[in-house]
């Protein structure tokens, strides 16, 4: 499965497009993740593409 964009409404995450997904998933809130990275490293002077970062992590994890 890849990245699914969703909105949070009335206590429920709703995908912006129809998706096939398992009944149970894990969510990563990108906005908070990027902020946490910046707090930890303190060196990010320009925006990062979190999706590209995730692709690299996934590629390295499969090695």
From TrEMBL:
Pfam families: AF2212-like (PF01954)
Keywords: Toxin-antitoxin system
InterPro entries in alphabetical order: AF2212-like, AF2212-like_dom_sf
Family: Belongs to the UPF0165 family.
Its biological purpose: Antitoxin component of a type II toxin-antitoxin (TA) system.
Entry protein name: Antitoxin
Naturally occurring in which organism (per UniProt): Thermococcus barophilus (strain DSM 11836 / MP)
């Amino acid at each position: 499965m890849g990245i699914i964009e969703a909105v949070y409404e009335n206590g429920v995450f709703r995908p912006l497009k129809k998706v096939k997904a398992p009944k149970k998933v894990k969510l990563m809130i990108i906005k908070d993740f990027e902020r946490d990275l910046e707090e930890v490293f303190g060196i990010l002077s320009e925006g990062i593409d979190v999706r590209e970062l995730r692709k690299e992590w996934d590629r390295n994890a499969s090695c």
